[in-house]
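To: structure desk
From: M.T.
Subject: fold request, one chain
Message: Could you run this one when you get a chance? Sequence is below, nothing fancy, just the single chain.
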Amino acid sequence: MQITGLTLEQYKAFPRREELEIRPLTVLIGKNSAGKSSIARLPLLLARAVSGRADAPLDLTVDEVDFGSSFTDLVYNRRRHGALTLGLTGKLQDQRSFRLVAKVQHFSERMLQVVTHCEISVGEHTLTLTWTGREPEEEEGQEPYDVVLQTGQGQPSAVSSFAIAFAGLLPTRPFLTALAKHFDLAQTFGADALRELDWLLDAIGYLGPFRISTKRSYPIPGGNPRHVGRSGVHAPALLGADVVRRKSDLLGSVSTWYEENLGGWRLDVDRQGDQFALVLIKPSDPSVRVNLVDAGTGLSQVLPIVVQRQLDMANPGGSTLEIVEQPELHLHPAAHAPLADLYIDAIASGGRRFLIETHSEIFLLHLRRRIAEGTLSSDQVALYWVDDPQGNGSTIQRINITPSGDVSTWPRGVFSEDIEEIKGIRRAQAKHSEPPR
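Reply: Done. Structure tokens follow.
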């Protein structure tokens, strides 16, 4: 399934209902602690919640990504008896639309969460489940729900009452199958649609703001990794396997990118028995080979990003949504524009979508430039400004980019720091130029 949108309310820093469209390149900008990372990581939380494998309505750790120590960490203002609403929209492989919106209520006395409202839509059919209990039952985790079917052509069906058990934000597979049979919707909510939900988490790639530090040497991998991993841990192994078992095409493309965008340094692999090292070749003297550990932090932090992008362009398929937090971390601004081009090229190869959180003004300006030049379509980009201007909860504002690269609106505070500094310089210069009294 391809994720096309997110819904959130009373989640983390966001008290009000917010909806985001996920386009091929979705970019989040905003100040620290506004909630950008909470949004960027939300697809992971939701994918686990619809996988059929969740241990709670919302598991707090998903593939080593930590969402909090307790459910209240997910709720706006950490309200002990609070509730939140989350949802996702997507497109199934057969092009039918999918939509899920669910409300989860926390019962603090029992440290228990219950899905109190759930809307599941596939195509034109929507099942609405509303919890009718006053207190959670002890027996087998089943709770009483009223279920209503709404089709695109008719009135809602009569209410049917069921005792239902949930796994994550959806009824467990047996209960969902029973509901589909009851409403004669076996094909709509059948095995194919559920299988796509089961696999959704595996189709999401994630790179956090701190990629794993490089080591001085690595063992030659016994297998062939397919992804750099959540923290970039497998990036060196991908390069080592490429040199030992393949034609070094991956290493060659990564090395070329380094040479063109990082001061002329080329990346290479030094084989040392059953170990290997990642080294940089000095531009002015190719005989000098510097271990990547001894180079600048930015050169190692960008490695997983470049490896994954080159790997994907050579092998279409894999993750359908890649989440990347601060891809520009530790990089000089001169490398931010080529970094943006990496994602533009990946979009052009088809299939993948990217959800990127960035603090880089250059990254954003380069996207606008490519739109103006016609390399990138404005329809492929969704830009969001995340902010808490009044201190009473964050909001998400869409900034539309026109085909000419201009923005439809520019909220106050977006990358305004350089202007303020220039104004400060001018004021100081004006004081110095004033004649003494």
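Reply (cont.): The chain has two domains: 51-199, 205-420. Let me know if you need anything else for the meeting.
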